[in-house]
Amino acid sequence: MPEVDAAQLEGEAMLSDRIADLVEYLVVQIVDDPDSVSLEVIDGDDASTIEVSVAEDDVAKVIGRRGRTIKAIRTLARALAARLDTAVEVEVLG
Questions:
Q1: Nearest Cα to 51, choosing from 80, 75, 81, 16?
Q2: What integer pLDDT is reported at residue 37 of this predicted model?
Q3: Which residue, 15, 82, 84, is CA-closest to 50?
Q4: Residues 6+ apart with CB under 8 A from 43
Q5: b/e string for 32-45 if b means 16 or more Cβ within 10 A?
Q6: Which one, of 27, 35, 3, lies nearest residue 91 by Cα?
Q7: pLDDT tens column, 23-62
Q8: What residue ranges define each of the domains in the chain, with the CATH number in brackets?
Q9: Whole-prediction pTM value?
Q10: Nearest in space to 81 (alpha carbons), one of 4, 7, 10, 18
Q11: Helix, strand or coil for residue 38?
């Protein structure tokens, strides 16, 4: 297993934080209760996971009809991640 230095880990964390900022901005624009939006970034070996928590009443708005809204958010997050040479997944928690 190759050694990973602290600077590399910090750089990857900063990249996932930039992606999380985009996801947070998009979700806050969609929901009725923006104060209830919170994100947790979980950095893994291959990819980062962004868990988005919203109020129960707003879960359907974030997911959208047939999942179109969350699919669009995931597409934008993955596009930014690709430009930053990393990978990301976005999950919605109620």
A1: 16
A2: 96
A3: 15
A4: 9, 12, 13, 16
A5: eeeeebebeeeeee
A6: 27
A7: 999 999 999 999 999 999 998 888 899 999 999 999 999 9
A8: 6-93 (3.30.300.20)
A9: 0.83
A10: 18
A11: strand
Indicate if the pLDDT at residue 9 is higher than 60.
no
Residue 63 near residue 76 (C-beta atoms within 8 A): no
Contact assessment for residue 85 and residue 47, using Cβ atoms and an 8 Å cutoff: no
Q: Which residue in this structure is represented by tokens 């602290």? A: 6
Q: Which one, of 79, 80, 58, lies nearest residue 69 by Cα?
A: 58
Q: Where are the beta strands (DSSP E) in 1-94?
A: 38-43, 48-53, 88-93
> Cα separation of 68 and 92, whole Å?
13
The residues that bridge with 91 in the sheet, in sequence order, are 51
| Contact indicator for 48, 17 with CB cutoff of 8 Å | no
